[in-house]
Design brief:
This protein is of the alpha+beta class and 126 residues long. The chain has one domain: Beta Polymerase, domain 2, CATH 3.30.460.10. Helices cover 46% and strands 25% of the residues. The protein has six helices and six strands; from the N terminus they run αβαβαβββααβα. A hairpin with a 6-residue loop joins β3 and β4.
């Protein structure tokens, strides 16, 4: 399912790849634009400990800024590092501790959202 904007899709790909490069668990991109209306996409991933959660979030921030020239409008949860939220306006990145991801289960909550196959799209584009 295509996202509203190609730029948003590209930033989602950058964020998901950055998370995967730091060994985040199961990065997923959800197209929530038609369901939510205030944001186009969620990038969701998790990590096994708070240090890795911070590392993943920092890498996503660095790479999105490097590739897209933008910083998050808001960052929440960095001190606790059990759920860090990076708000880029059209895209929100959720980096969870594994157990918090299982508890909140955003993929189930937003099950009607289309999943964007960012990894396959990347392979086709190269």
């Amino acid at each position: 399912m295509p996202l509203t904007s190609p730029d948003t899709f590209e930033l989602c790909r950058v964020a998901a790849l950055a998370a995967a490069d730091k060994k985040a668990e199961r990065p997923v991109v959800l197209d929530v634009g038609s369901l939510l209306g205030i944001v186009d996409a969620f990038v969701i991933c998790s990590a096994g400990n708070d240090r890795q959660v911070r590392t993943v979030a920092e890498e996503v921030e660095r790479r999105v800024k490097e590739e897209g020239g933008t910083s998050p409008l808001r960052v929440e949860g960095k001190d606790e590092a059990s759920w860090i939220l990076l708000d880029y306006g059209d895209m929100i990145v959720h980096v969870f501790l594994d157990e918090w991801r299982a508890y909140y289960d955003l993929e189930r909550l937003w099950k009607d959202a289309g999943r964007v196959d960012w990894d396959a799209e990347l392979a086709v584009g190269e």
